[in-house]
## 1
Amino acid sequence: MVGPRIDSILRSPNWHNFASPSWFPVFRSNGEAPRWVLRVQHRRGSLAGIVAGVRRRNLAISFGVLVLLSVSMSLVVLASYRAQKYARLQMDFVAAVSHELRTPLAVISSAAENIADGVVPEKQLTKYGLAIRNQTSRLVDLVEDILRFAAARDGSNRYRHRIFDVSELVDTAIENTRALLDRDGFTLHKEIEPKLPKVRGDISALGQCLENLIVNAVKYSGRSRWIGIRAQIGRDHAGYLEVQITVADRGPGIPAGEVKQIFEPFYRTQAARDGQIRGTGLGLTLARTIVEEMGGHLTVVTKLEQGSAFTVHLPPVLNPPSEVESTPVSELSHKA
Ligand code: ADP
């Protein structure tokens, strides 16, 4: 404030003329004509500066709101895309399961009908019985896969952890799939590194996982009739020791665009669907879930026209306790 010295603060007698409360003090100069210049300035600078600042702040807020809106829009679009994709996969799954159910059910029903009608000669009865048994076990396998998948999903799987030899795991998985390998004339190349450390986990569940990989190698090998199984000690990305069990084939391989998706539930490659190869698209999801629950992970390396190699990576037990729990092979009596 610039002006003459202020001598007094009085109450104006004509105060009501200003339509203001009478108690408001006014400054009066000492006899001279008042020449006041009132400059008002915000603590933060000039009015123009403040307006520009407010504008900038409003702009930043609008921009933030816009970014937030676009992020939420993208999330909504992504979620609906995922929901659509999942619904489509489930529809494919229902179609695949129905297809898988139809064939064995048709065989069982026509065999049973023929036997009931008495049109089957006695010497053919055994053959019919075998067909019914095979188709029934195919149905049981399918239902078991679906139940296992459901259990893995809701986390109700009960694992019995043990410390065991990798060779025991590999040999049992091979034994359980031997009939399939022999039936299709496969050559199996097995290589187990000597003095491999033991691993810890549910040997039955891990066996099921290995068998899934072997069955896949058989199903998707095309004309090749070769499977390699190798167990070795290696190092993970961080340089830690790990046990690696690889199931390799020399089949047509998996297109790069589909490699990630084969681990998703219900996903089947275009080639598998076109080739009408039996399957539900659950095997690898199950295998991966099991391996991860044992503290490991499952990877694949694949090259078109050259084959695929699926590897189970497991943490080794480097200092097993003296009273090592061993698992009887009888525990490994699950399906091939
Ligand atoms: P399923 O075999 O029942 O279809 P999986 O989950 O085991 O289901 O496999 C998912 C898909 O991955 C298969 O449908 C197939 O397309 C592909 N796949 C799996 N293993 C192999 C393999 N060894 N070679 C080529 N493709 C494979």
## 2
Amino acid sequence: MTQGKVYDLVVLGAGPGGYVSAIRAAQSGLKAAIIEKEKVGGVCLNRGCIPSKALIKNAEIVSVIKKASEFGITYDHLKIDYSVAVKRSQEAVSRLTQGVEFLLKKHKVDLIMGRGIIRTPQSLTVESKTDQKEIQAQNIIIATGSRARSLPGIEIDGQLVMSSTEALLLTRLPENLLIVGGGAVGVEFAYIFSSYGVKVTLIEVESSLLPREDAEIGQTLGKAFSKQKIEVKTGCQLGALKEENGKVLAQLLSKDKEETKVFERVLVATGRTPNSENIGLDQIGVKTQKGFIQVGPFMQTSISNVYAIGDVAGKALLAHTAMAEGITAVEKILGKDPPPFDYLSIPNCVYCQPQVASMGYTEKSAVEKGYQVKIGMFPYRANGKAVAIGETDGFVKLVTDAETEELLGAHLIGIDASEHISEMVLARRLEATAGEIARTVHPHPTLSEAIMEASEDVFGKAIHIWKGN
Ligand code: FAD
């Protein structure tokens, strides 16, 4: 075994949480190393956020072309080649992962390729095909991420039954597809494939799509998807799957109905499982719960110089959460005094069309917390820009504290919602009130005016909508 260097910080896993932590540590004068067993960029860059958003861009173009006649644009011959979309998405992946490697190098972060295992709170080993080395660490950040989780009794073979990883690389589209799970990943793939003409059936066991979102969001998305000819079945779960003649027989179980349907492919999008096994957690006594590493408000584990961030810590399985948690951990290591991590100020975005973006409390969770709430709603159909561009689906819903007017939560569904939620996150961080947002002049005509009008609606004073008799 080669004896390696001593580092101020060793990061295990080079996904978005890991590489951001390592770069910030290096920027702050720490000697940092990062260990990666597969590819720099993790799930997000290689088989998550980036390739899926590239495919969604293609799907949006196809959707626009389909309604081009509304804009007076017609065509005789249209050729759509999905394999080019996949190629383009992989080019985006490669460009961005190379960019991260460049940044690590420029910041003098040592990138060590191999499988890392924590041996003591101050040391790790890295195993590669050719070598095993030991490295010393004053501090460790675990950022080993997560992988797709299947349902009990359902085997993901990567062919007929896929996870998102295989779905991103599919170059020949099936005629029909069953997607199991109406969370973010399931609905994004439903949008991608259905835009390209695949007959998609999307099942979700809860009563609406995106069940963690405000109830009205999921219902509205369900209606929008039905208009897009996606068959949405809520309150429906997968029974058995059986292969027959190269296709899959899927048993779909609803409260009052049981049916068996034939699909060319099945995509299982039922959540993620943490990569917390075989990395030495038991040996050093790091506590986990259902596999997710337990952390405090500064991302510290049960061992004070060992931190865990991102999907493996399981608080909110999003790339920007992983990155922000990494920065909190590094600031704690540096002895700065970071604020405790605030998950209510984390935006959640889903990039299908209409897009969904939210932060903070839903109406239901705010009431359960004991708040007296006042709601402000504004539909995009009453927004000038939305009408001008022909994208009137959806609304802005604000949840505010009736007593203090403070913004508790924001829930957007509509075109470009993900670009507007940051305004709401900033408002919440600065403890802005509905009145202050309402008095913030928004440019006309923009979709962002819907936020201003929803704030005005908290006081029953939205200008561009009549809510009386
Ligand atoms: P990961 O990205 O999982 O990276 C962990 C890294 O650790 C991996 O590279 C892995 O190889 C490495 N590793 C694991 N064990 C070891 C070991 N023992 N030694 C060395 N290396 C190890 N999130 C968003 O915010 N926006 C989106 O639009 C979005 N879209 C998504 C779409 C899909 C299809 C999927 C599946 C996920 C999406 N996500 C999205 C979620 C996002 O990808 C994750 O939240 C994010 O990647 C988590 O980052 P992470 O750093 O915690 O871990």
## 3
Amino acid sequence: MLHSWKVLGVGILNKQLILSIEGLCKTYETAGGSICALDNVSFQLEEGELLAVMGTSGSGKSTLLNLIGAMDIPTAGEIKLNGIYEEGMFKEPQATVYRRENIGFIFQSFNLLKDLSLEENIALPLVLKGETDADIDRKVTKMLEITGLNKWRSHRPVELSGGQQQRVAIGRALITSPPIVLADELTGNLDFNTSTDILQTLLEMKKVFNQSIVLVTHDPSVATYADRVLFFHDGKIVDEYTCTRTDEDMDIILQKFRHILERSA
Ligand code: ADP
Ligand code: MG
């Protein structure tokens, strides 16, 4: 009995909030007028949670990731990391420090450096952090094993398939063990089988590093990998779904997404 209470206690402790997004707004001022890309968005991300953000093109998904990653400045609202809002987090040099210590980015277009080998690409964030050669070597060797890329370690990105390149990008994003991973349409350029392989790699790595992930996608089958799905329309959260890990997930996510498509039509 005592033992089960202990287990329950650990379970509760594990469910800590890592991110609290409160009243986030982003308006772009353009020559053609103001564009409201995010409109009073609030949600929370738990430690170790995989959250999918779904929405049609232009619904504000990339804007949201850019703000969470301090790549852009919100018009209003706050992003709290572990319950704390840092006033200057969007200004340099704090923004770079915040990104380097907390965020791993994975993009649809892989964004690898073409003149560097695969292992140099993966090592880059550690080099920028100023880690020692011995630490870099140890971490990169482990990452090459986890991503199954050891055989290609000295190849350049152009010599690799799309799926392999995305695995390099995931390795590079996770090599510093950032607590938060932001993935923008990470399987958008990949076929179905390769996408499945990439998502499995991401899940396996999440088990090793216990990352919290925000995964932007317009693909319902990708969203079924998440713990929870937020549905965006016109810069607002309009629906939400907690996955049950049953066949029902795909049907409900599709149904909710269709509902949003109908709103946009
Ligand atoms: P999504 O990723 O869901 O396709 P985005 O976040 O890229 O959507 O864009 C949301 C809205 O903001 C769109 O109307 C888009 O045209 C606009 N937008 C995005 N980035 C900029 C920018 N840098 N300048 C002006 N408008 C932008
Ligand atoms: Mg986008």
